[in-house]
Write a sequence for this structure.
């Protein structure tokens, strides 16, 4: 993964600028309003994430960490919460990214960084197109000296990365294209662009649904990573699974671009290299389910559960797919297991109620749907409306 390459980039930026405070997080409501929303919708992962950002902005980092972890417990697939946890240590200790870039991390912070790397990897495996803007909260803003001393260099190279961290993916992609064009015009002998350029270029292309361009960037990353691992196969500096992660991202891009068979092939290759890559099973199941190939989808859902039994959302997925396939009794049994594993997930009761209603179990369905309506976050107005309609029909 490339969190460290971004840290090195930020170190270079900082070395050319005077010290500055990190950017403030843009909030849609006041802290008091967000706290009230999190209390009112205590089972809404997004509400806890939003109030965490408000605490972060106030430098109340312990409170921010608590709320981010709560969001992750409620919804183990909430990628933004895990990416925020990955960057939170750099907010707690602003000089940490410079220390990491120089290999001077204090001993007491090394485990923290290992946990950060794990959260970073998890976020991108959950959603390769996770929102990157939280990284901007630990990035020093451009110093005014850039405008006079380094304007051309910044515009040519660093502005694209800034655009990415601000969520300006369209602008970022245009700048990466310009960077490649200018490099070609410079002639031979200019050396290779860093892999971080292709990583962020691929993400920018994907965020703007330029699937062919994203495919080229990630294919280059796979090829370069394979070459690197072969060159250093006897060294201790190998980075385990990096190639496999890029392969997984490439599969996601091809899936999004409509090349499902190629995506399935890459997901299978990724699993051959890492049987614990449970999200590859999830993605394959999504493909099969969309094609109404329910036996294949169910098998992949079961494999995902086996690969990561601690994630109750995988049981929810399995139960929903079983219900869609007509295996209603089995679906209810699996959904009940999901409810026991994660009592905070209101979605389980919605799908349980639907399955029970299809079985003709009116009382059980009414109980499940009533519980869903009582638990569901207020922003789930569509699902709440559907549940109330079903309840009316069951009277």
């Amino acid at each position: 993964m490339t969190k460290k390459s971004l840290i090195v980039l930020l170190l270079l930026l900082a070395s050319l600028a005077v010290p500055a405070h990190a950017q403030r997080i843009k909030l849609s409501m006041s802290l008091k309003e967000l706290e009230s929303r999190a209390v009112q919708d205590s089972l809404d992962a997004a509400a806890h994430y939003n109030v965490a950002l408000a605490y972060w902005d106030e430098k109340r980092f312990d409170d921010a960490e608590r709320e981010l972890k709560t969001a992750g417990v409620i919804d183990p697939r909430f990628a933004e919460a895990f990416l925020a946890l990955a960057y939170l240590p750099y907010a707690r200790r602003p000089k940490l990214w410079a220390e990491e870039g120089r290999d001077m991390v204090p001993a007491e912070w090394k485990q923290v960084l290992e946990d950060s790397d794990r959260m970073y990897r998890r976020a991108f495996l959950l959603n390769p197109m996770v929102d990157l803007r939280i990284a901007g909260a630990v990035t020093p803003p451009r110093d005014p000296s850039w405008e006079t001393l380094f304007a051309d260099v910044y515009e040519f190279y660093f502005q694209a990365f800034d655009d990415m961290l601000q969520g300006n993916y369209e602008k970022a992609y245009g700048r990466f294209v310009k960077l490649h064009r200018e490099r070609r015009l410079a002639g031979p002998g200019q050396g290779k662009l860093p892999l971080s350029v292709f990583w962020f270029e691929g993400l920018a292309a994907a965020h703007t649904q330029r699937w062919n361009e994203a495919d080229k960037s990630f294919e280059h990353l796979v090829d370069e990573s394979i070459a690197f691992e072969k060159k250093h196969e006897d060294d201790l500096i190998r980075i385990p699974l990096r190639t496999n992660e890029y392969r997984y991202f490439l599969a996601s891009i091809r899936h999004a671009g409509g090349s499902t068979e190629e995506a399935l092939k890459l997901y299978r290759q990724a699993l051959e290299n890492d049987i614990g890559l449970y999200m590859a099973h999830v993605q394959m199941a999504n493909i099969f389910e969309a094609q109404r190939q329910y036996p294949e989808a169910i098998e992949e859902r079961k494999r995902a559960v086996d690969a990561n039994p601690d994630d109750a959302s995988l049981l929810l997925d399995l139960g929903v797919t079983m219900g869609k396939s007509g295996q209603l009794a089995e679906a209810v049994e699996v959904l009940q297991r999901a409810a026991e594993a994660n009592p905070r997930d209101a979605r389980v009761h919605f799908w349980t109620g639907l399955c029970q209603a299809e079985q003709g179990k009116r009382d059980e369905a009414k109980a499940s749907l009533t519980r869903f309506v009582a638990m569901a976050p207020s922003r789930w107005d569509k699902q709440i409306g559907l549940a109330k309609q079903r309840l009316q029909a069951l009277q």
About this structure: The two ends are 54 Å apart (CA to CA). DSSP finds 21 helices and no strands in the chain. The mean pLDDT is 86.
